[in-house]
Amino acid sequence: MSSPSAFIPRATPVAALEQRLPAIIFLDVALEGSDAIDVIRSLGERGYAGVVQLISGSNIALLEDVARVGERHGLNMRAPLQKPFRAEALRHVISGLHFDRQPGGVDVSLDEAIANNWLELWYQPKIDLRTSTLAGAEGLIRCRHPVHGMLPPASFLDSGSEQAHAQLTEHVIAAALRDWNDAAELGVYLHTAVNTSIGALTNLQLPALIRENRPKSEKWPGLILEITENEVVKNVAFMHEIATQLRIYGITLAIDDFGEGFSSFARLRELPFAEVKLDISFVKGCGTDLKNAGICQAIINLAHHFGAVAVAEGIETAADLQAVHRMGCDLGQGFFLARPMPKANFLALLRQRELHPQVL
Ligand code: C2E
Ligand code: CA
Ligand code: CA
Fold this sequence. Notes:
Layout: E1 6-7, H1 13-19, E2 24-28, E3 30-31, E4 34-35, H2 36-45, E5 51-56, H3 60-72, E6 76-82, H4 87-95, H5 110-115, E7 119-128, E8 133-145, E9 149-151, H6 162-185, E10 191-195, H7 198-203, H8 206-213, E11 223-228, H9 229-234, H10 236-247, E12 251-258, H11 265-268, E13 275-278, H12 280-283, H13 290-305, E14 309-312, H14 318-326, E15 331-332, H15 343-352
Helix pairs in contact: 6-8
Bound molecules: ligand C2E and calcium ion (2 copies).
């Protein structure tokens, strides 16, 4: 395992965080050219899973408010240390940390996360590339661990019983349907999507779940279930059956990570997909890499040929955004546009209606 890393942001703290996310960050309230709240927002957007230790000479009430802001952004905030402090106090903070694993490298079992109610659904905006407006959002699961902080799905999804995976899917579908009402109250009627596995779909009473939780509003555009191409090709007949049944309830399917599995296009033709999501590995660099650009263009054309919406995922640069836009891709998603964020931040964003990529 790699050694512990600690980091005190200095001149350009937010820019420095682009380079690396250490296990612990000592954060002063006022920083040169920035402040603690700026850094907190940036860490929250990245889903930072390490520890944030506040230090400051300012008054304790302000420090406590800053800590609360950090918690609202999903960060693992430690009680503030007031300056001046002794090396002993610092040693105490560090000795309490679990440095044997880096943030993000922690493994927690899915069963444990469900049993303890640690799961929460975050949202990443999807942008309509023609109008540069918000078109929808993908719900992505996070685990708020009491010791390790916010954990990405890679830390807990691979583990877990079949039953736990079904429970997870039930949880994210119910949460997405509930959260839709909160966005609708702001006058935004979003087409939201959640991820699911075929195993979970077979083990769930989906129609009953949807009937119970679906928004009553006539403006509800339905829910999208994302299933990876790899899973789809192994279960084409079942997928057809379930897709047909779900359409009755306003649920459509998206094929996720498309291109990754090099599936037989002929077989996929039989399936009623509403969305095809280009795999991140092709979108990354498609603005400069001709091979990736060619694959993206082929998948976009194929999606349109099937009558499906093409979604480019993993847009990290202006060049890639412009490239997929030029190729006629319908929707875009990626860190360049917006990172996954907690529900409260997502709703705040809807309130501000801030999402207008100016680079197209
Ligand atoms: P996915 O469905 O392909 O989701 C997209 C992943 O790419 C997300 O990772 C997202 O944070 C990340 N991403 C978005 N934009 C960019 C970008 O510009 N650059 C890069 N490098 N990455 C980007 P995340 O949230 O860690 O999720 C990983 C995977 O875990 C998901 O991949 C999905 O397969 C699975 N997953 C997430 N939530 C759920 C869930 O509720 N249920 C199930 N069954 N699986 C889930
Ligand atoms: Ca997905
Ligand atoms: Ca994907």
